[in-house]
Design goal:
Number of strands: 19
Shape: globular
Strand order of the largest sheet: 2-1-3-4-5-6
Strand content: 15-25%
Radius of gyration: 22 Å
CATH superfamily of the largest domain: tm_1862 like domain
CATH class of the largest domain: Alpha Beta
Number of domains: 3
Largest sheet: 6 strands, parallel
Helix content: 25-40%
Distance between the termini: 49 Å
Structural class: alpha/beta
Length: about 450
């Protein structure tokens, strides 16, 4: 009888892709993959260790399974991912119920690690970060109609608040051929929406080809039959070129949506963050995108309470949010991460102030979202059906304006003339009737 293994993957889509590759390797080694990890013999917890809240979530998850192990319901706990890579020995010391800690460079050895754990051994496996494969087969864990496609690993941007370069190493692009090969496979198994991810997608190809090849990659992906929507996340503003904008404008399959993490707008704060953009260049690229692609939806993320952020600089950020009117926005209180330059800055802002500032930004964004959503009432959009809400007794899904797992949803009922129930992954037309917080309410019309 095959050994039962379950996995819990936390954090970003890039980490999820790593988890999917580990699942494939385990299955190919004869393990039985259990969807509910609590029912498995061994559980792999693929952690995030980017900021404090993510670390806390990872620790709480590990402790939940530690309880199950102490109750005799599972046999072993293996911790992988960014937290494992970052804290190594400390994890087992702090939580002795953990049986193995596997760094990113040893993901390919996971099947052997579980075998050793089954023999009663405690394992610590840490290969070089560069040994983390950025290619290979996967078991898709998202809904079958969409999938993430990781085009690069690591980061060289070295923002002063970010631990990713020390956790995941330098920026490494995949070859365009390997990406296209995987994309063709995704299309062949029914994926309709592919989401391109990397720490900095706009940097794709610089290390291999001497210049960014994201526009060329996008055009090649658009040639693949089966894809309906192609979405790109994590585009740094200083690398959004006229060429990239033109491809985004011209190619039908490229959804008119761009995720541009800018983090702040004040030039002094940006400089201390070691960001490569300034306020003026950020405004220019936003204006250019909206001028060339009037229907484009722009998402961004902001950090409040970065060391040294003054009241005046924060007020400037709030005014910037009001002026730019981003379609989607997330705001996060600065997290001082060990080993990063910013954590050593002397002028740390009190945590209460950081968090309050993040709340104020989101309050402002909610007002903007209310206005933007109100303007959608009466319009009809194409929506991918994601499921049926038994409590609300209606279906829900997303438009091309919303990224999976990040943005809002559309909840819709069936028109009296539409008897056929939509299947999961089916694209339908929905007329927008009302607004509920960040979400839209509508009726299927065909």
């Amino acid at each position: 009888m095959a050994t039962r293994v379950g996995m819990v993957s936390l954090g970003c889509p890039k980490n999820q892709v790593d988890a999917e590759k580990m699942l494939y390797s385990l299955k190919s080694e004869g393990y039985e993959i259990i969807q509910d990890a609590a029912l498995a013999e061994f559980v792999v917890i693929n952690t995030c260790g980017f900021i404090e809240t993510a670390k806390q979530e990872a620790i709480e998850t590990i402790l939940e399974f530690a309880t199950l192990k102490n109750e005799g319901r599972i046999k072993g706990i293996i911790v992988t991912g960014c937290l494992a890579e970052r804290y190594r020995e400390e994890i087992i010391e702090e939580i002795p119920e953990i049986d193995a800690v596997v760094g990113l460079g040893s993901n390919s050895k996971l099947a052997d690690v579980i075998r050793e754990v089954a023999r009663g051994k405690k394992i610590q496996a840490f290969g070089k970060k560069e040994e983390l494969s950025i290619e290979g087969k996967r078991i898709i864990t998202t809904e079958p109609f969409y999938a993430y496609l990781k085009i690069a690993e690591g980061c060289d941007n070295c923002c002063t608040y970010c631990a990713i370069p020390s956790i995941r190493g330098g920026f490494r692009s995949r070859t365009m051929e390997s990406i296209i090969e995987e994309a063709n496979w995704l299309a062949s198994v029914g994926v309709k929406e592919v989401v391109l991810v990397a720490q900095d997608t706009t940097r794709y190809g610089e290390d291999l080809y001497g210049e960014s090849k994201l526009p060329e990659l996008m055009k090649e992906l658009c040639k693949i039959d089966g894809f309906k929507w192609i979405r790109t996340l994590y585009c740094y503003p200083e690398r959004i070129t006229d060429k990239l904008i033109q491809v985004l404008k011209e190619e039908e399959k490229l959804v008119k949506y761009l995720d541009i993490p800018i983090q702040h707008c004040n030039n002094q704060v940006l400089k201390r963050m070691n960001r490569k953009s300034d306020k003026e260049s950020i405004v220019r690229v936003i204006e250019k995108l909206r001028e060339e692609i009037p229907e484009i939806v722009l998402r961004t993320t902001l950090i409040t309470g970065f060391p040294g952020e003054t009241n005046e600089q924060f007020e400037e950020l709030c005014e910037f949010v009001q002026d730019m009117r981003f379609d989607r926005l997330g705001s996060f209180a600065y997290s001082a991460e060990e080993g990063t330059p910013a954590a050593e800055f002397k002028d740390q802002v009190e945590m209460k102030i950081r968090e309050r500032r993040a709340e104020l930004v989101m309050d402002e964004q909610l007002r903007i979202m209310d206005e933007l959503n109100e303007s959608q009432i009466g319009k009809t959009f194409e929506v991918v059906t994601e499921g049926f809400d038994r409590y609300a007794e209606c279906y829900f899904g997303r438009t091309s304006m919303d990224a999976p797992e990040i943005d809002g949803k559309i909840f819709f009922s069936l028109d009296s003339d539409c008897d056929a129930k939509p299947a999961i992954g089916q694209f339908v037309k929905v007329h927008i009737d009302d607004v509920l917080d960040y979400d839209l309410l509508g009726t299927r019309v065909e």
